[in-house]
Each structure stands twice: as C-alpha cells, then as structure tokens.
Amino acid sequence: MTFFVHSHNKTTPYVTSTVIGMTTSASVPTEPEGAIVTSGTVTDRLVDANHLYADAFTDPGMDARPVLHVAVVACMDARLDLHAALGLALGDCHTIRNAGGVVTDDVIRSLTISQRALGTRSVVLIHHTGCGLESLTEEFRHDLEMEVGQRPAWAVESFRDVDQDVRQSMQRVRTSPFLLHTDDVRGFVFDVKTGLLREIDPA
Fold this sequence. Notes:
single chain; Beta-carbonic Anhydrase, Chain A; five-stranded mixed sheet
C-alpha cells in the first residue's frame, strides 16, 4: 500500500517538533575521516554524531509548516522508523510520539498547535504490535507511589486490545473541541515483524 509519496528528493536525518530521527548505530560512520568517539556516555556519542552531521549540513530553507499538512501520532518504540515506513521526507509532517502512541491531553495540545498555528489538517495515529503498554497496568502508578511517596498525576494508558486502543485514540481526536480539522483522522497498527500498516475501522 502506498501511503505517502516523497515530496522532496532529499532524505537526510531529520528533527521534528517532538522527536529526533537518526541513523541506527550500525550505520554511523566509523572510517578514520569520520570516526565516532566511543568513550564517554551515549549522549557524548550522539553529540559527536551531530558534529559530523553539521559538517555536511546545508540549510534546506524550509518553512515550519509541514508540506503534506499532516501530523502523525505514534509510539516512541525504537523499532518504528516512521519516515522510512511512510515514505516521508524532511519537512513533510509533524511527528508526535509517546509511550503507546496514545492520545493524551499533551498530544491534543501538540495537535492543536499543529493545526491552528502551523496548518496541518490530517491526523494519522499509529500503534504497533508487541507494544510494551500491553504488559503494564495502572498498578505501575501504585508501585511508583510506594517507591517515591507520590502518585503520578498521569495515567499509564495501558491496554490489552491494540485495535480498540487505536479506536479510542481516534475518538479522542475526533471529539476534541480544540481541533479545527477532525474529518481526516485515520488509525493504524504497524506490524514490527513485516513493516506493514493495518488500518483500523473506527466503528
């Protein structure tokens, strides 16, 4: 299934409003002329990689408004390479990611800004197979309270049925009074074994 088509010829590492997309460790240059320092912390390694990136960086001259006028809400799972999976290029979309890809109040905040200030109209929601939230319960909050002496204000948003949770997320977007555009809201489950999206019927 063709979901999005590249709108740019350039495919480079990208930065969105919420997440940094980078190459995997296996593809980081290791040649002498572009060696990554392996001592220090993981953050040190990322900073070193950024220096190599910046050396070859040229200003793309883009506006902050996404070219395709779409916002993608997805899980933060490290196995999801959204730009590659959806055929997206730098500047095409807003990417909003959290644990589970669930629509929380903060996701609504980001979508509201995305639509009202930066012109997006479509919303794509992506959960995935084998999500860690399927193995958690709200007891996670209780355990935290016992450990630190304070119960978190946020919900875990765990679930057992990924399809139903996608439907719930679609419903939260469609019923939000803050969003201008709720007619093009679609939800999917990404299969981490095959790389395919499976669309979820909102009914």
